[in-house]
Amino acid sequence: MDPGKVKLLQNQPYDESVEVSDAEEVVSTNPTPRMSKPQSGIEEEEDGGVEYPRDGSVPQASGMMYEDEEEDEETNEEEESEEEQDNGGIQQTLTGGYDPNEYENLQVSPEIRELFKHISRYTPQNINLDCRLIPFVPEYIPAIGDIDAFIKVTRPDGAGDRLGLTVLDEPSTKQSDPHVLDLQLRTHAKQSLEKPAPVHNIKNPEAESKTLDSWIENIKELHRQKPATNVHYTRNMPDIETLMQEWPSDFVESLKEVGLPNAELDCNLEEFVDIMCGLLDIPVRGNRIHSLHVLFSLFMEFKNSQHFTNYIPPT
Amino acid sequence: MNLSRLKAETSGSKLTDAKGKEKAKDVLPTLEGLLSIRDYTGAITLLKFQKSTGTADIGTGLWLAYAAFHNGDYETARKEYENMTKVESCHPDVWSNLGCCYFMLGMYDEAKSAAEKGPRSRLQNRLLFHLAEKSGDHDTLMTHHQNLQNVLEDQLSLAAMNYLRTHYHAAIDIYKKLSQDNRDMLALNVYSAMCYHKLDYYDVSQEMLATYVQMHPDSIMATNLKACNNYRLYSGKAAEAELKQLMDQLSSNYVFGQEIIKHNLVIFRSGDGALQVLPGLIGIIPEAKLNLAIYHLKHSNVDEGYALLKDMAPTIPLEYILKAVALTLVGQEHNSSEHLKLAQQYFQLVGSSVSECDTIPGRQCMISYLFLREEYENAMVYLNSIKGFFFNEDTFNFNFGQAKAMLGQYAEAQEAFLQIASETLKNNYLYISWLARCYIMNRKPEKAWELYMKMETTAESFNLLQLIANDCYRMGQFLHAAQAFDLLERLDPCPEYWDGKKGACIGVLQLVIAGQEPQHSLTEIVQLLQRTQQPQAELILKAISKWVRDTRMLSPQR
Q1: Cβ of A277: how many Cβ atoms within 10 Å?
Q2: Domain range holding A204?
């Protein structure tokens, strides 16, 4: 008989036999993958007291078999060795285990053949690995808060508010700064106040630069609103515009030569004020403070004037 | 045309605005004006100023409490109302208002007794209705439920109750019905959006929210909800950006809703700062405790996580899941089958429930349940059903890989294991040992050997060596088996390892003779054998050299 044909015939039943769910059936037709013998008792790993599952029911490879059967198999195999080899090979590429029968027909000296027996003499352990569920930890849950249950205080005047209906019952994001508002209210208050304004402080200005900036901005704004202090002159004063008129040219000429008097002038303060006011055409009658106020107002006007800031006096 | 003119006006409005500002500043804010723009801080300042100047009247205290309450400062409101109740001529409505303050402060007993001192009113009924829910008093709850009338506030209160009791669809029905009759009540859309969020319909929630956010871009609650939807739909980054934008607009003294924002920033930053922020929010934000537990479980602080959940009686699926996860981890860590059994129960309960059986968390529960019962084939059915959502999720791949390997499908198992990115998992011995087995089963023993070489010398690396030695032997990969047994023998000179090494070395010889292993592998095993002082080793060495001599003699002849 042609050995090739024999192989073909033998192949088919083996292929089918794999499908059989009964493990024993599969085992009996599948020659001796001894390495997948379940070594249920052998468990050398003792790390941290983890107990490995020891039941042999877990189908790690389809070629499981039991020790007592093995002996019979080996005798059978010897008879059918020629044909079994290739079939066994097909099975083993599926399960992947080592099959000594594959090497039965190697042309070796009896000495080496004797050595080969050592391969099967050692039975490798089937180490059961711990199979541990890594639980699916849920994702973090964001909070969206509770829905308005209309458990809320009513307006003292009994009027209905629309809070929670047309608009969510939450404060607007733009809240007045209580300290600024308080100062504002004080500024505008007609009557005198019992208590002085509380002094606000920012505990950690470096961390709260935003707070600090808005505070400065608010206070600036507040001061801008404050009306400028009015001085009611007891006498009529010339208005600033008139005082800003140019001096006569000969006066300017002589000023160039003698210069304006400075603080070294040998006179007292009152006299000095009188002199300066005289030069600037500011009348000094009775209250010098008023005259000085006019003088400084005039100075301010020059200082803030666009024209004179850019003016470079001829030297 | 109209549009552009409008635009011109707004762009040129800087000047007029400045003028307008000055004008407005001339006129001091009024209480009504401040309340209408919900500037409660302003209102409180004004009222306090009036008090200090003696222009206050009896109403001032009531207004002050009203403004404080709506500003979220329930403590100040409570104090105001408490003071009022001490006066003989106190208005009877004050009692219900005081009850509301207690309620918001979580002082439910005080709330109840305050509410009962006041006259019957719809507010009082609503308050007692919700108090009954808090105390779990079903009969009282039903009584007050029946007293609710068909008016806006009562219906909305009922809807809020439905929301609290996770009856989101019932709540949505109420909001829909009320919205139809009151088209201007945009807040109701936000409430519906909140329900949809809870139902995991994040895109619907987003749609419901759109109009309100457009009208009130600075709303804390609406923006937060939008951010939460973004978190679920896209990423924590998108969510954080949403909140950040709002935070920049906030006045520095803004306090309302700050806890929820602080809480959610931790969530959006995937737990960053959880340990600093969340403990302080437990009892204020209901989610804080669960999230803190999640943080611990995610970071393998099993006992801390379990401690938070131990006494919690789960009511919603998420709580069941969390508890089951904690029980699993504790059971695994302390080898307690009792915990694992309870975990199985919870997992099965959620996984087989009508509401969750078709959700991803529900499927995960079934996987966990079957996995714990070691029913890997059944677990695989569920694993496959959600694989598409988790192709690059480490936890999923780890479980998938293990189940596949248990079923002997090592190629797919290896593929799953190799997709895992987490360094923590990759350094886990469980991972290393499974991957090593997959490599060997898939005929790549050298990769398994590499895994061993990368490990530090520990009890675990010794175990891995045993695994490699024996699995390679089983698979006929004798060279690596021989190397592994040789190392084992050197670490622990026990006869078993010599037997393994001997068999493996002869196995290599067999493979070389069969032409399945290159001849130079013999050099390797000769070195290995020379290390062992055994007469058998001598014998084998002799046989090998004889065979080598013989083949060399033979080969030129051929």
Answers
A1: 17
A2: 179-189+196-225
